[in-house]
């Protein structure tokens, strides 16, 4: 029992230490965003990495999720004569929850792991110390471009995910479930509200911020060798995914109240 309590207390302290470091890095990033900088090229390259390079994985995942959502919805409501509502169900599900979560979790796995591994490798090879020696602020040079790229590109990816997911749902609804194309499109436009769209876009931006800050922080505190970089990468992906799921619940409740 004593060993269990000691282990529990130790893990809680480690968690709080990481949480404190992530919070400090977040506010440092906000500070350095508004300082003069010549990092536009770096920001653009990170936006391409986060956005353009993620289109394939986001597109394939969203397409399949849209197809599965339409299929399962059709099977569930067909006995009640509600197949015509498939378009509305798919549209609302994607806009509110599915598209932001797809983008958030895919970015946590693809983008977050890359951020943590790249910055962690720089840390253990003393490249970050070299930046400091050259009077370059690591947060401004490394974190700010990644932060801004995730903030800007995740909502764009959500819009793309919504479109592709709706197309996947349309294919299943019209070809497998016998729903007329015009009815599907009409229900998409009828039941999708502006609140659904901006709630999904807002949540995706928050997920992007969480992924960038958690992954960059984990890279910056990496020490040791290659094995520690792999641990940092794993931690970044797991912790980012967990943060996204927790944030999804709270912001879903918040937007429902509002």
List keywords for this structure.
mainly alpha; 9 helices
Structure characterization notes:
The chain is mainly alpha-helical and 258 residues long. The protein has one domain (41-257). 85% of the residues lie in helices and 0% in strands. The protein contains nine helices and no strands. The protein has helices at 2-33, 40-50, 55-77, 86-124, 127-133, 138-175, 181-191, 194-220, 226-257. Helix 3 (55-77) packs antiparallel against helix 4 (86-124), helix 6 (138-175) crosses helix 8 (194-220) and helix 8 runs antiparallel to helix 9 (226-257). The longest helix is centred in the middle third of the chain and has 39 residues, at 86-124. It is elongated. The termini are far apart.
> In what range is the share of β-strand residues?
under 5%
- Helix count, per DSSP? 9
Cα Rg: 21 Å
Unreliable stretches (pLDDT < 50, length at least 5) are none
How far apart the termini lie comes to: 45 Å
Q: How many strand units?
A: 0
Q: What is the mean predicted local confidence, pLDDT?
A: 88
Structural class, please?
mainly alpha
The biggest beta sheet reads:
none
Dominant shape: elongated
Topology:
Layout: H1 2-33, H2 40-50, H3 55-77, H4 86-124, H5 127-133, H6 138-175, H7 181-191, H8 194-220, H9 226-257
Provide a compact summary of the structure:
The protein is an all-alpha fold and 258 residues long. The protein has helices at 2-33, 40-50, 55-77, 86-124, 127-133, 138-175, 181-191, 194-220, 226-257.
């Amino acid at each position: 029992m004593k060993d269990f309590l000691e282990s529990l207390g130790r893990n809680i302290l480690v968690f709080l230490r990481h949480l404190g470091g992530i919070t400090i890095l977040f506010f440092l990033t906000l500070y350095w965003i508004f300082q003069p900088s010549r990092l536009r090229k770096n920001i653009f390259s990170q936006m391409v990495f986060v956005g353009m390079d993620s289109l394939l994985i986001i597109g394939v995942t969203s397409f399949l999720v849209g197809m599965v959502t339409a299929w399962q919805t059709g099977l569930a409501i067909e006995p009640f004569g509600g197949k015509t509502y498939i378009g509305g169900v798919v549209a609302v599900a994607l806009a509110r929850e599915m598209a932001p979560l797809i983008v958030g979790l895919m970015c946590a796995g693809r983008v977050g792991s890359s951020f943590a591994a790249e910055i962690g490798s720089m840390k253990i090879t003393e490249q970050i110390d070299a930046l400091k020696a050259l009077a370059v602020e690591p947060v401004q040079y490394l974190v700010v471009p990644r932060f801004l790229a995730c903030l800007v590109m995740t909502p764009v990816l959500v819009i793309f995910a919504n479109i592709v997911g709706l197309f996947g749902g349309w294919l299943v609804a019209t070809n497998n479930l016998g729903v007329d194309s015009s009815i599907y499109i009409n229900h998409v436009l009828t039941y999708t509200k502006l609140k659904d769209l901006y709630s999904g876009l807002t949540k995706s931006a928050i997920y992007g911020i969480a992924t960038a800050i958690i992954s960059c922080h984990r890279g910056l505190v990496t020490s040791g060798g290659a094995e520690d970089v792999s641990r940092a990468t794993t931690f970044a992906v797991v912790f980012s995914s967990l943060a996204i799921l927790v944030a999804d619940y709270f912001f879903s409740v918040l937007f429902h109240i509002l």
